[in-house]
Specification:
The complex is a heterotrimer of chains A (97), B (726) and C (539). Helices cover 80% and strands 0% of the residues of chain A. Chain A is mostly helical. Chain A is elongated, with a radius of gyration of 16 Å. Chain C is mainly alpha-helical and 539 residues long. Chain C contains 22 helices and two strands. Chain C has a two-stranded antiparallel ribbon with strand order 1-2. In chain C, a hairpin with a 4-residue loop joins β1 and β2. The two termini of chain C are 21 Å apart. The chains are: A mainly alpha (97), B mainly alpha (726), C mainly alpha (539). At the B-C interface, β1, α5, α6 and α25 of B face α8, α14, α16, α17 and α18 of C.
Chain lengths: 97, 726, 539
């Protein structure tokens, strides 16, 4: 049971990572980040079956952080969009030097 | 008050007038300060408080400085009367004191075997180096002091008349006074460093006075040239001092004299040669003589005082003072004789073809200085000093006389607004009719310098040549080798050169006399009305010098001509130079060989007379034309007139290459090119390596979030991998 | 005088006071500026001419008063100093950063004494010299000058290597700003160059200091110590390490001296800096490099300094600097650059004197340091004065002005003669002592160095001839104002100093004799531990 769950989480996490690395749209990148976070959540729950309830408690922490980070991140994207009229990450290279 | 008086047995001069000897240089120094203050504060107008403000500007009253070529500002200075009292006044006082001290020394008589030293304070005490500010008084310095203050006093008085209309009148006297002060420090110093203070100080004053009329670039150039060439000589002086201290540990004359024999012969030779390098610079010998003719750009009394009577003789004084060193090194002494003789004839030959009256005298001075060096080089220290003294008399007379002539010519040209050269002999002629006093005195001086009996130059020049001949027959110099040639032959050769130079001296001096005072006048019809004798204040010193040039020979009559007490100077200087002279003559007082003496005298006299006669017959003043119409010389005459092109050679081989190397190689090439452009800017500048590396590094900062994320992932995997593999 | 000084407990507070008075002055300036209003912001386009509007009046008076107080306080050192006492005098020792072993230890000996007096003297004159030269942001300028003073004095006084390093760096920043804000056309380039050049050397020095601190660490608790005395006596450093450490210190100080070929920052910095900046740079900051050699680099590593190769290289570079500096000086069209290169030449003499390692040559080197400070400071002040009037440093822009500005001409000629080393002026004493001392140990180098007296005369006389003499050919030169009373007031003490040090240098020499002798003894005994016992540590 554990192995399957972990496998599933790993797959989800990898999909998330690949998405973050390859997608151009900032909102899609955020969705992939959420995917990664949820994959991690799944891992915690899977392990909590074996090692105790601590893992499920941690899931709550992760969810809270995910929510906050999504809020702030989307706010940044909206500000960025207002400024540059784009959310294409390849065009946002003001820090180039 | 003083650091210490002479320790041990009280010196015979301790309680006499000699204890005021410190006042000797202080009096002219006071004159410098007062006259300098008068000069600068009469010309100074304080500027505005904010010089950077746009409306700030100076006064429109532009004074004091000197006239340039075309606008002679002939205006008597506000403080001229006061300066005329202070300037010559301090000299009179100084001379009076010098005479008083001299009489005290006379009274002390034969007990005076050691110098009288006064130490004032420790100048540079560092570890075992002790250089004190101290003066010493002995027979040699007394001779020099009398010449400096006496002839100096006369020249100051002459200057009152000569410079009367110059706007820089007080500045002139302040510089002149400063010069005398430094010159006295030079001859009174008790150690080489103190002497060096005076040595360089007179160089400074020479620079200031040659370039006195500084608005004319040629004058300023001449002053600068003099100072720099002097400095080349000073380099030699310095190195000699270093060698002395490194080997003996003292720089005081007394100390060095006592320990001179401890020096190895090689070391002594090098020390003497380096000192002699200093002499060639200061006393205008080959190869550092070219500044002296250029120095004629200064006012004529300056030429008389500095470049004839005193400063240029400092080199002779140095060798006479260092007699204990030179006597130990026959090689160095021979070098001095050779250079002196070569300079004597070389300069005399140039003098044969110069047209500017002052240039003739300048080359004559160089030539006569050569004689003096022949004298002191051959160990005839008394003869060299004797010639120094007589030369001071008649050369100062010649220069001041020419000053009177130039003064008259200037006045004439001023009045007629003539732009011609007032110093060119081709513009003169027949002046004996207009300036009889000056003519007579110049004639006396010419006879003196040519070496005609009984004038002063006859005795002094003859003594040098005679002693040279005797040294050639037997002395440490004759025993030594100079560059492989036996010393005796060298000395005989120099004797011959000396005779040849004497012949030329007679010729060119007579030439000058003839062209200036005889024949028809070429100055111009209107100018003739204005030609006349100079004011009495200028002629009076000439008369005094004339008398001295006539009777000066009596200072040191030789045994062969017993017209009075013989060998006064010999006896006077014996305590200072006697020992060294004996060392050179193998310890034997040379017996006077009267027949030989008469022959030598006869030869010298005959040559001088022959020179005069040749000049009188060959040179025809009537053939001359004024300068502006004169044809340029041709052939060898042109070489002589252009002074063998030595100045040009120096310029091309030394000056220009140095400047070029400094500019192109050192500055542009190494400093800006190699160091700055290649290394500094190459590393840190806007096109440098640092920038390039930075640019490469900045490629990492693509600004792309995706790239950053990739790098992050790779890094994480790397770290995880490293931990796993461990 | 001594009685009075001991009655006020002078010994205990003088050095600390010298460091804090400038800081206090800067504080007063800041307050006055905030209250009294100064010209707007950092935008150079809106800066007003504060001299003309009178805003500059308060800051420059405050600064001058501070510097005067500083100078007067430091004067007491002249009398209170005891030349026969081999220990550090007026010393102060407080704990500072115990965890690193850095202590606030300051004290002076003969050579530091003269450097301190020179510093306070020159700072008064340079603040007077900036009176009408600095026309914008005057508050900042004078505050930076005050900070600079603290830094420089701190370097001279430090007996703790960490403190030494801190003070060394404190000097850099104000100078960077002074050149960069109030300088000439290429000021940014010049100030950056100056800063980076010096920094590179300082970085190496920092590494060396840290190494030394650790090498001397307290064996019980492992805390490093940076105390100069302690390191001198106890640091265990292998000979190879000593060579490298000496090299690191050499890099830092050689840039500052400046030695050939690390000198190229100097001409740019001098030319672009404002007058006061140039004066301070030339008169004092260059001496910090040579002082570093005298105080730290050589005494801590005498075997490295005596190493034949090292010594030959340094002496060779010094002599090259002397001749090269003089020759390149000759062909400069800009008078300030000419003086800058002449500084390279003069400081070459100092290096020659130090590494010839005789008492006479070291005393000579110290004298040259003092004399160069006075003469070159005077030259830069004079250049500044004429620049204020005609806004040109090019020699070719002048000619024949002696007729128009006779007082200026007299001053310039006199100061040039001092720089040339005419006997009777201060320049001669230093050069003579260096040369005669060096001849004993390194005669060939000395003879080559002596030729520089010829070149020195050549470059300076030629320059002042083209400026003062020759024909008055340019009409814009005909109405230049002569020196005003304030400028005379600046030059007068310098002239007096030139004559006094030339004619009667004995009191100065006597005060420095002890430190010179100790320096030579340390090096000759080839070890700094042989020195233990005579220096009883801090008084």
């Amino acid at each position: 049971m554990l192995a399957e769950s972990l496998f599933f989480s790993a797959v989800l996490f990898t999909i998330g990572v690949v998405g973050v690395l390859t997608r151009r749209n900032a909102i899609i990148v955020f969705m992939c980040v959420e995917l990664m976070l949820n994959a991690v959540n799944l891992t915690f729950v899977a392990f909590s079956q074996v090692y105790g309830v601590g893992g499920q408690v941690f899931v709550f922490f992760v969810m809270t952080v995910a929510a906050a980070e999504a809020a702030v991140g989307l706010a940044i994207i909206i500000a960025l969009f207002r400024h540059r009229q784009t959310v294409n990450l390849q065009n946002v290279n003001l820090l180039k030097g | 008050m003083f650091l210490q008086e002479v320790t041990g047995v009280a010196h015979p001069l301790t309680a006499t007038a000699a204890r005021w000897m410190w006042a000797l240089p202080l009096l002219p120094l006071l004159g410098f300060v007062l006259n300098g203050a008068l000069s600068i504060f009469s010309a100074y107008h304080a500027g505005p408080a904010d010089p950077g403000a746009p409306e700030a500007h100076g006064s429109h009253d532009v004074t004091g400085g000197g006239h340039d070529d075309h606008h002679h500002v002939a205006v008597r200075h506000r403080f001229a009367t006061l300066t005329s009292i202070i300037g010559p006044g301090v000299m009179v006082l100084a001379f009076g004191l010098a005479v008083a001290i001299f009489m005290a020394m006379q009274r002390a008589g034969p007990e005076l075997r050691t110098p009288f030293i006064q130490r004032y304070y420790e100048w540079m005490p560092v570890g075992d180096l002790h250089i004190d500010a101290a003066f010493q008084l002995d027979q040699l310095s007394m001779v020099m002091i009398l010449v400096i203050t006496g002839v100096g006093m006369l020249i100051h008085i002459f200057s009152v008349g000569y410079m009367q209309d110059d706007p820089g009148y007080p500045r002139y006297f302040s510089y002149l006074n400063l010069f005398v002060a430094f010159m006295l420090v030079l001859v009174m110093g008790a150690s080489y460093p103190v002497m060096f203070v005076g040595w360089e100080g007179v160089g400074l004053c020479s620079y200031l006075l040659i370039g006195f009329w500084y608005l004319d670039k040629a004058n300023a150039d001449a002053g600068k040239k003099a100072f720099i060439m002097n400095r080349i000589g000073d380099f030699g002086f310095l190195v000699a001092m270093f060698m002395l201290w490194a080997n003996i540990g003292t720089l005081e004359f007394d100390g060095v004299r006592g320990q001179a024999t401890a020096l190895g012969s090689n070391v002594v030779t090098w020390i003497c040669l380096f000192f002699f390098l200093g002499c060639t610079g200061k006393s205008a010998q080959i190869p550092l003589y070219t500044w002296l003719p250029d120095a004629m750009a200064g006012p004529t009394p300056v030429s008389a005082l500095i470049h004839a009577a005193t400063m240029v003789t400092a080199g002779v004084y140095l060798i006479a003072r260092s007699n204990f060193l030179f006597a130990l090194s026959p090689t160095a002494s021979l070098t001095v004789v050779v250079i002196g003789a070569l300079t004597a004839i070389f300069a005399a030959s140039i003098g044969l073809k110069q047209w500017d009256i002052k240039k003739v005298l300048a080359y004559s001075t160089v030539s006569q200085l050569g004689y003096m060096f022949v004298g002191v080089g051959a160990g005839a220290y008394v003869s060299g000093v004797f010639h120094l003294v007589t030369h001071a008399f008649f050369k100062a007379l010649l220069f001041l006389g020419s000053g009177s002539v130039i003064f008259a010519m200037h006045r004439a040209y001023h009045a007629t607004h003539n732009e011609d050269d007032a110093q060119d002999m081709r513009n003169m002629g027949g002046l004996r009719r207009y300036m009889p006093w000056t003519f007579v005195l110049m004639f006396v001086a010419t006879l003196a310098i040519a070496g005609i009996f009984p004038f002063a130059g006859f005795f002094s020049k003859d003594e040098i040549l005679g002693t040279l001949f005797i040294r050639a027959r037997g002395s440490t110099l004759a025993d030594a080798n100079w560059l492989g040639i036996p010393g005796g032959i060298v000395l005989y050769a120099c004797y011959a050169l000396g005779l040849a130079a004497a012949f030329m001296t007679a010729v060119y001096m007579m030439r000058m006399l003839i062209y200036v005072f005889f024949g028809p006048n070429r100055s111009g019809e209107r100018e003739r009305d204005f030609l006349g004798e100079a004011p009495w204040i200028m002629t009076a010193p000439l008369i005094v010098l004339g008398v001295l040039s006539t009777v000066g020979g009596w200072l040191n009559l030789p045994e062969s001509i017993k017209l009075g007490r013989i060998g006064l100077l010999d006896r006077w200087l014996e305590p200072v130079v006697g020992e060294s002279t004996l060392r050179i003559t193998h310890g034997a007082v040379p017996k006077v060989n009267l027949p030989l003496e008469y022959v030598l005298i006869g030869v010298a006299l005959a040559i001088a007379v022959a020179g005069i006669i040749v000049a009188w017959i060959v040179l025809k003043p009537a053939d001359l034309v004024p300068k502006r119409e004169a044809k340029p010389e041709e052939g060898f005459e042109r070489v002589l007139a252009n002074k063998y092109y030595v100045d040009e050679i120096y310029d091309d081989t030394v000056v220009r290459p140095t400047v070029a190397v400094s500019r192109d190689l050192l500055w542009q090439g190494i400093d800006e090119g190699l160091i700055d452009t290649t290394l500094v800017n190459g590393i840190g500048g806007s096109k440098g390596i640092a920038r390039i590396v930075g640019k490469i590094g900045s490629l990492l900062q693509s600004g792309q979030v995706g790239t950053y994320a990739w790098v992050l992932i790779v890094g994480v995997l790397f770290v995880l991998g490293a931990f796993t593999i461990r | 005088m001594n009685g009075f000084l001991s009655s006020i407990g002078y010994d205990r507070w003088v050095l600390t006071a010298l460091l804090t008075i400038p800081l206090a002055g800067a504080l007063v300036l800041w307050v006055q500026g905030a209250l009294g209003g100064r010209s707007g912001g950092a935008d150079p386009r809106t800066a007003t001419d504060e001299v003309a509007t009178g805003v500059a009046r308060a800051p420059r008076v405050i600064a001058l008063l501070t510097f005067l107080v500083e100078f007067i306080v430091s004067l007491g050192l002249w009398w209170a100093f005891d030349p026969s006492d081999p220990r550090w005098q007026f010393a102060v020792d407080h704990s500072w950063i115990p965890a690193w072993g850095a202590r606030f230890t300051i004290g002076i000996d003969g050579m530091a004494l003269m450097m301190i007096l020179l510093t306070t003297f020159i700072m008064v004159l340079s603040s007077l010299g900036s009176w009408t030269y600095i026309r914008t942001r005057t508050h900042s300028f004078y505050a930076l000058m005050l900070l600079l003073t603290t830094g420089m004095l701190g370097v001279f006084m430090s007996l703790d290597l960490f403190l030494f390093y801190v003070m060394w760096e404190v000097m850099l920043v104000p100078m960077y700003f002074i050149i960069g804000i109030w300088g000439g056309e290429r000021r940014i380039y010049a100030s950056l160059k100056f800063f980076i050049y010096t920094m590179v050397g300082s970085m190496l020095m920092l590494a060396a200091i840290v190494y030394l601190g650790l090498a001397a660490k307290n064996p019980m608790n492992g805390i490093p110590t940076f105390s100069y005395d302690y390191i001198m006596r106890n640091a265990a450093v292998s000979p190879r390490a000593a060579l490298w450490l000496f090299g690191a210190f050499f890099m830092a100080f050689a840039v500052k001296v400046p030695m050939f070929p690390f000198h190229t920052w100097l001409p740019d910095a001098h030319v672009e800096a404002p007058t006061a900046g140039s004066v301070v740079l030339a008169s004092i900051m260059l001496k910090l490099g040579t002082f570093g050699f005298l105080r730290i680099a050589v005494p801590l590593f005498p075997s490295a300094a005596l190493n034949d190769t090292v010594r030959s290289i340094i002496l060779g570079l010094a002599v090259i600097g002397i001749v090269y500096g003089a020759l390149v000086s000759m062909v400069q069209p800009d008078f300030k650059k000419l003086v800058a290169y002449s500084s390279v030449s003069h400081l070459g003499f100092v290096m020659l004197g130090i590494f010839a390692l005789t008492v006479q040559s070291v005393q000579g080197a110290l004298m040259v340091m003092i004399n160069h400070g006075i003469s070159t400071g005077a030259l830069f002040l004079l250049v500044g004065m004429i620049y204020e009037r005609r806004h040109s440093r090019e020699i070719a822009a002048y000619g024949g002005i002696a007729r128009v500005v006779p007082m200026f001409a007299a001053m310039l000629t006199f100061v040039s003669l001092s720089s040339i080393g005419l006997p009777g002026t201060n320049g001669f004493v230093g050069e003579f002592l260096v040369l005669i001392g060096s001849f004993k140990t390194v005669p060939i180098f000395t003879v080559i160095a002596t030729t520089a007296v010829i070149f020195a005369a050549a470059y300076l006389l030629w320059a002042i001839q083209r400026i003062l003499f020759n024909a008055l050919s340019k009409p814009e030169n005909e109405h230049i104002a002569d020196l005003n009373v304030r400028e005379l007031l600046i030059m007068a003490p310098l002239v007096v100093a030139i004559v006094w040090l030339g004619v009667y240098p004995a009191p100065v020499l006597r005060r420095m004799q002890g430190s010179a002798e100790r320096f030579v003894t340390i090096v000759e005994s080839r070890s700094s531990t042989a020195y233990a016992g005579t220096r009883g540590g801090v008084r």
